[in-house]
Amino acid sequence: MADRYLVGAGGNWNSTANWSATDGGASGASFPILGDAVFLTAASGAINLTVNVASACTSFNCTGFTGNLTRTTTLAVSGSITLSASMTTSGSGQLQALATGTHRSNGFVFPGTLVIVNSTHTLADAWEVANLQTGIGGGTTQTINGFSITITGSLNLTQTLTATTTGTTELIMTGTGNVSWSGQTGTMLQNNLTINTTGTITFPNANYNYNTGILKYIAGTVVTGTGTLQCVFSATFNTDGIEWNGVNFNANATITLQSNLTARATLSIGGTTNNTTINGAFNLIAKAAVNFNNTTGTVQGTATVKFAAAVSQTVSKSAGAGQVLLQLLVDLPGTLTFTGDLRMRLDTLKCVAGTVVTPKGTWTAFGGGGSPVQKSFASIG
Question: Phi, psi (5° rounding) for residue 288?
C-alpha cells in the first residue's frame, strides 16, 4: 500500500505527472490503484483531476482541496471517503464506496451518484447527494449508520433478491426522482425513509419490500404505479397523503400505523401461519378487494380495516382456523361481500353505510366469551 498525493498542473488520473509520494513533493510516482491511499490537499492547488479511466483506491481524502474532480467514469473506493467544502466536481461518473469505511462530506453537496455497497458504512456527518444507489448487483447486505443522507434525485436499490439495505441512517428524499427496487421482489430497505419534497417521487411498477424502519410522508407528489408495498418484518408507517397501489402486510411481527394508510388495489393481510399485529388508532383504508391470508395464524391489533370503495367490495379469508380480530368498518355506497372461512369476533364488525352479505350463508364468528357462534344470514345493513 502506498500514499499518493495529487501534484502538478492537473490532468488525467492515470498520468504519473500528477502524483507524488509526498504532499507537495515531486511528481512521477505511479498513479493510484486499489491498495493505495489517495490525498487531494491544499498543496495540490486549484487544479483539475480527471477520472478518465475506471479507477480504484483504498481511501480517498480531499481535505483542504480547492480544485475540481471531473468524473468521466467510476471511482471505486474500498475504504473511507472524505470530501471538502472547498472543492468542486463535475461529470457523470459514480463515486462508489465498496467496503467498510467512515465517510465525511464536510458540508460538500455531491451532485452525482453515490453508490454504497456491502459491509458497514459510517457517516460521520450529514450528506446530500443527487442520487443514492445501494448495491451493484451483489448479494450481500450493506449497512449505513450515522447521519442522514438527503437525496435530491433518485434512490436505487440494485442488490439481488437476498440482499438488504439497513442501518440507522435516515434517507430523506427532497427532490424529483424515482425509488427503484430494480425488479428484485425480495430486495429490502430497512433504513428510515422520509419523503419531504416539493417535487414528484415515483415508486416502481413492481413489488417493493420495506420493513424494520419508519416510512414517513411529509410533503410532495408520490406516484405509486402498479406495484405493491410489502412488509415482512416489523415496521412503522406514517404515509397519510400517499395512495399506495397494492399493500401486502404478511409480517409475522407488529406493524405500527402513525396515520391512515390507503390501498387503492388489493389489500392483503396475514401469512399462512403468521400472527400479524397491526397497531395504531388509525385506518387501513381499502378501496378494492381485501384478502386475509392467515390459514392458522391470527390477524390482530388496534387498527381498523375500513372498506371505503366507491363501488361494491369483496373480502376473503383463507380456509382454516385462523382468526381476524381487527376492527372492520364498512363505509361504502355498495355491498361488501364476504367469501371464505371468516372467523372473527361478533363485536368487531361495524357497518355505517352499505350492505354486508355472505353468499355462502354461514359466517363463523367468535363471541365475547371466545366460543364459536354460527350465524346464517343473507344480509345485514
Answer: -150, -150
Nearest to residue 115, comparing CAs of 83, 146, 144?
144
Is 0.85 surpassed by the pTM of this model?
yes
Q: Is the dihedral of CA 158, 159, 163, 169 positive or negative?
A: negative
Distance CA 166, CA 70 (A): 31
- CB-based contacts of 104, cutoff 8 Å, min separation 6: 80, 81, 82, 83, 123, 124, 125
User: Residue 325 contacts by C-beta under 8 Å, 6 or more apart in sequence?
Assistant: 298, 299, 300, 301, 344, 345, 348
Scan for cell 486549484, then name that residue. 46
Cα-based angle 244, 247, 250 (whole degrees, multiple of 5): 160
Q: What is the pLDDT of residues 90-113, one digit of tens each?
A: 999 999 999 999 999 999 999 999
Phi, psi of 16 (to 5 degrees): -70, -15
Closest C-alpha to 8, from 72, 61, 67, 54: 67
Contact present, 50 and 72 (Cβ < 8 Å)? yes
Distance from C-alpha of 378 to C-alpha of 328, rounded to nearest angstrom: 19
Question: Residue 355: what pLDDT?
Answer: 82
**C-alpha cell belonging to residue 170:** 435516515
Sequence length of the chain is 381
- Amino acid at residue number 43: A
Q: C-alpha 126: how far from its chain's center?
A: 18
Q: Using CA atoms in the order 62, 64, 68, 74, what is the torsion angle rounded to 10 degrees? A: 0
3-state secondary structure at position 44: helix
**Using CA atoms in the order 290, 274, 298, 358, what is the torsion angle rounded to 10 degrees?**
30
Phi, psi of 105 (to 5 degrees): -90, -25
In tens, the pLDDT along 33-70 reads: 999 999 999 999 999 999 999 999 999 999 999 999 99
369: exposed, middle or buried (Cβ count in 10 Å: 0-12, 13-18, 19+): exposed
